[in-house]
Model the fold of this input.
Amino acid sequence: MSTSVSKIVPFGSGGRIVETACRSLSIAATGLNELESRFGQREFAATFLRLVGVLMQVRGRVIVTGIGKSGIVARKMTATLTSTGTPAIFLHPADAGHGDLGMVTPDDVVLMLSHSGESTELGPIIQYCKRFAIPLLAMTARAQSTVAQAADICILMPEVQEACPNALAPTTSTTVQMAFGDALAISLMEMRGFSADDFHKFHPNGRLGAQLLKVRELMAKGDDVPQVRQDASLLDATIEMTRARLGGTAITDHEGRLIGAFTDGDLRRAVTAKQNLTEPVGRFMTVTPQAITPDDLAHEALHVMHERNIMLLFVCDRGRLVGAVHMHDLLHAGVA
Done:
């Protein structure tokens, strides 16, 4: 049963509600116009070009982060970047200090969103970037904020009027953030020459053939698969990871069975804890790591990677290590 406006609001106030909605849209449009006008300013345009240049050259991923409403925008930006040819992943600040910082590698860059630039939850990520020389890119509206001062490149967003009458709920500011994220993604997309065909490869409605690929068709095999025994030293494991360039190495027993995994993040934590590189890697490995079989579909492997926030899966046939598959290889093949 339908409910008339007069039954849920005082009679005669319907027009006022419509006016409020239109006013909100008008305020949002003003904010977008202010953002657009920023690109006409030489300093802002130059900063934007530097930002694009860094993202074009990144060898790893764009780690997008933010808290609260900025975090929601960051998630959307991550999805847009990934689907338009820029590998990106969202890092929740609340999880960063509980081990998830280990997924940030020296090949990555961090893109941090914070309207105020003073969210305390972002502190550990800022410190981590400074400690390990990870490029920190930022979007904030406050030039003197902690985030702005810590960033290597900072995009100063316009100070806009919130549509919220109490100026409390982020409304216009998040709209402007979202629009900037889209503008950034499309700029990168055009710079890469990312075509409509490429776009379809990254989506479920893309080419059927990519969705039917099996892991065995995309995995590294033979000597290309990094592996060491659990009594190998941390140094030996590091050398093996460097040789294979997959961001990790399998730990196998004398029968070639997968018993553990050791990643760049594990190595970083060991070095940070001042562990001796002659220590056996078995002390620091992840026991019984996630694995997949050669006959599993590639898109299932990608789903596992997204679900577990990992970039590398080892491939086993009846327990024996036979391969390794990296997320970049799946994405390059058009798997979605």
User: Anything to note?
Assistant: The longest strand covers residues 320-326. Residues 248 and 263 are 4 Å apart (CA to CA). The domain at 11-194 is CATH 3.40.50.10490 (Rossmann fold).
